[in-house]
Amino acid sequence: MRDGSSTHPEPTGPETTIPGWRLILSDAGRLWASRERPFSKVATHAGAERTVDADGLEALRAEADRQEDLAREAEEQAAREPEMREAPASGEREQVGRVVS
Prior knowledge:
Layout: E1 21-25, E2 31-35, H1 41-45, E3 51-54, H2 57-80, H3 82-86, H4 90-95
Antiparallel strand pairs: 1-2, 2-3
């Protein structure tokens, strides 16, 4: 039963949930979703946001999906380019072993 005091939408089935995300209804009636587990450092650095908001459930679901896609793409790119994570910045590589007078 909904008495208006809860800030969490009442789950009634899969159509009102986003797997892996917690839904929150603000006092102003805005929907928010917060990912239950943080994104990886790679995904966060790529811009994946753990908490998103929207005017309606479908828009909220689309935004959460967009964040998951962004995170997945960042993880896949990092897996394809392991040398990029370990290589020094281009300027650093040129200066190694260089004598400056």
